[in-house]
Inverse folding.
């Protein structure tokens, strides 16, 4: 895949870590146009150095504040930081409803931090595929630590977390039963647990619950650390960074990090291939006219969805 | 697609509404084996009569209790009911963590209610595709109203809600700000709003917030009704059923229901086609050996994901 001279300039800008070039490149790779392929190709060759840290947990756990403080701490250590905030959005307006965040102001004048909010909706190839592309840009741009924040525990979020080298799960005391139940979905992907808002009542109970749940899960290597934080007062944030680095070092030594990055590459390949096939179907197989004809027959119960699909697949020569 | 005589018996059982046949058929269509296609083909021809009602909203809104009471009310009116409860689950254990519900007991002896819990994870073709298949079985089985309950506001949930003829969004007073913010993602898909737990403080404020948000959205036809309920005391449930039926009648008259069902058929077709292509890729294109080879080259930065995908697509003759 060839790059144009305009793209070559964009690639150079990203590799130099210029914020405007990074923003531009992310827009190109997010919209999934033909320009994305050569750009990603050129950038991908320069990736693999950044540490990708996923931060997830139920709404109300204080993840945004925590991520903000983690970024501040990393900056004090002289490291460059990327933040990708995956926001729940309206399927109609397409905008990130949590919008411009307070954090944006805190880091606005620091070229060592690049922040991008991503809507959870409207990604043709799926949220995880798009997030993977954005991470490629930030990694190539030399961000040493990239924090990926997601809300919730849907399939999408788990896939996004699966992109990370290290997964941090944030819980808080005092969430309702049903919300606590939700955590089970992300319990087993955690490398490091955070109990945030640890100035509230019930911290010990949450920590005990996590320990009890961990005792049920067969341990592959070391047990996840449990760190308590009060992010809004900057308490425990240094310990959290330390726990993340301890995990990363151990995973590097044991070979887990290499295995995980291979698994990530495999998942990325699968997602991009499915995304590509879906685009092909939309553009070349299920044209508007053909789709209307099949819908007529479906609504009239003259065919059924799987039979219709087999017809299409047969015509493609893939049956 | 031909059905075997065993399958013909299963189809007959489903069409007669026999609970064991329904359960069996759902298992077949959920696991996505080759048996699913002829079964779904035979059943799909007998669908289109049931009214599909999506019920969604944030965790803690009391949706399960509400759905349970709606089912009881519909049964009193002599109508048969299907319930599909989409539960958040662990990606590792695969089980529905909310598990067997209290509701199961309430309706266990009533053959006029069929209840199925579905895990949100592990659906090869995606949750929405699988849910669509389960609805085909319940509709063919003659369930007059099918209630589909989902938790949360991820892409999955919005797609599942998109399967419904009527979408009900459940909110409650007193949820935190971030959880209330999440509602914006599902605000615009609501045909009927419910403010549940209406015996709590703050009901008027939630109703006012919904009205204010609705005033910002361009109205296509009638404004969504807002119903207040206290599901655990059975208050407001009859009014909710009335509001759903009023919407359905109006949507039928205006042609909205027909347009919506066409859109649903189109989305179903697209999902099943993407699911089919993904299976094809897994089984025939990205074999384990080939995948390992590509991963080696990705990890070594000798290629990038999009270039690798173009190579694969080129070999398929689809480029």
């Amino acid at each position: 895949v060839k790059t144009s001279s305009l793209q070559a300039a964009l690639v150079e800008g990203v590799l130099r870590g210029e914020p405007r070039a990074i923003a531009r490149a992310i827009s190109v790779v997010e919209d999934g146009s033909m320009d994305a392929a050569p750009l990603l190709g050129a950038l991908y060759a320069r990736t693999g150095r950044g540490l990708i840290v996923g931060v997830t947990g139920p709404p109300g756990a204080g993840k945004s504040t925590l991520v903000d403080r983690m970024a501040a701490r990393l900056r004090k250590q002289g490291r460059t930081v990327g933040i990708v905030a995956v926001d729940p959005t309206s399927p109609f307006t397409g905008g990130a409803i949590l919008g411009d965040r307070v954090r944006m102001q805190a880091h606005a004048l620091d070229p060592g931090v690049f922040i991008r909010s991503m809507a959870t909706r409207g990604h043709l190839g799926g949220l995880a595929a798009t997030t993977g592309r954005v991470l490629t840009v930030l990694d190539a741009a030399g961000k040493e630590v990239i924090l990926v924040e997601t809300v919730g525990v849907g399939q999408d979020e788990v896939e996004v977390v699966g992109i990370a080298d290290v997964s941090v799960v944030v819980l808080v005391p005092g969430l309702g039963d049903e919300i606590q139940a939700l955590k089970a979905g992300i319990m087993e992907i955690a490398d490091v647990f955070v109990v945030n808002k640890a100035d509230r009542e019930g911290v010990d109970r949450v920590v005990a619950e996590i320990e009890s749940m961990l005792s049920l899960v067969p341990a592959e290597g070391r047990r996840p650390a449990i760190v308590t934080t009060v992010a809004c007062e900057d308490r425990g944030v240094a310990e959290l960074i330390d726990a993340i680095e301890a995990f990363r070092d151990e995973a590097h030594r044991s070979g887990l990090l290499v295995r995980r990055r291979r698994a990530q590459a495999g998942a990325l390949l699968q997602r991009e291939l499915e995304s590509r096939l879906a685009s092909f179907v939309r553009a070349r197989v299920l044209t508007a006219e053909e789709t209307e004809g099949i819908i007529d027959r479906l609504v009239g119960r003259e065919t059924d969805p799987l039979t219709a699909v087999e017809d299409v697949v047969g015509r493609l020569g893939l049956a």
Observations:
- Chain B touches chain A through 79 residues (CB under 8 Å).
- The first strand of chain B starts at residue 51 and ends at 56.
- Residues 9 and 291 of chain B are 42 Å apart (CA to CA).
